[in-house]
Amino acid sequence: MMRADSTSSKSIPDAIEQSGYALVQSFLDPAVVAALAQACRDDNATGKLSSAAIGHGDARRLRSDIRGDRTRWFDEAESTLAQSSYWTAMHSLRVRLNRRLMLGLDELEAHYALYAPGARYARHRDAFCDDDARVLSSVLYLNSEWRTDDGGALRLYLTDSVEKYLDIYPEAGTLVLFLSADFEHEVLPATRDRLSIAGWFRRRA
User: Fold this and answer.
1) Which pLDDT tens digit goes with each residue over 63-81?
2) Crossing angle for the helix pair 81-101 and 12-19, to the nearest 10 degrees
């Protein structure tokens, strides 16, 4: 296992260009992160989160043995104040990435993701075999006072083997970015609820 070093927000394009991934701590104001976390918990308590599926199109199906999170997709037009702060920061990042790396990022899709204790997401890639619209994956973590023995790491595989990987723990305010087609990854089980916003920068179809 390798250690994941944090970079500054200004250095994200450089990290993506050099390594294909970036890790940024304190990406959003702590008050915004706390409000997003509370909204995710409230949505779960009121039944607004739904069991997540795998695949897409006609192959889309529920497989709780592979993917165990519950999600709710964002609608930018109906954003809360905290969600608007998220959209603003991510769109600003999209512009900088396009200017620096010419990735052709046109839009962002995102959803809350809540993993109950013991839930996981088996090793996979975010880019579909027949659809290359997703270019850059992102995860913003919403969990305060997370400890390593709580589990729940994002395991990012740096090669096709099982030996070289990064374990990134879901600490509040941490943003992870990686090229969707290049990195297999998995979510390891946690001992407490694990909250995040999963997003994908997409190119125009």
Assistant:
1) 989 999 999 999 999 999 9
2) 60
Q: Which of 162, 56, 52, 176 is nearest to 116 (CA)?
A: 52
* CB contact at 8 A, 169 and 25: no
Amino acid (one-letter) located at 176: V
pTM confidence score: 0.93
174-183 b/e (C-beta count within 10 Å ≥ 16 → b): bbbbbbbbeb
| Adjacent-strand bridge partners of 127 | none
Kind of pairing between the strands at 21-24 and 50-51: unpaired
39 token code pair: 């909204």
Write the pLDDT tens digit of every residue in 106-118. Answer: 999 999 999 999 9
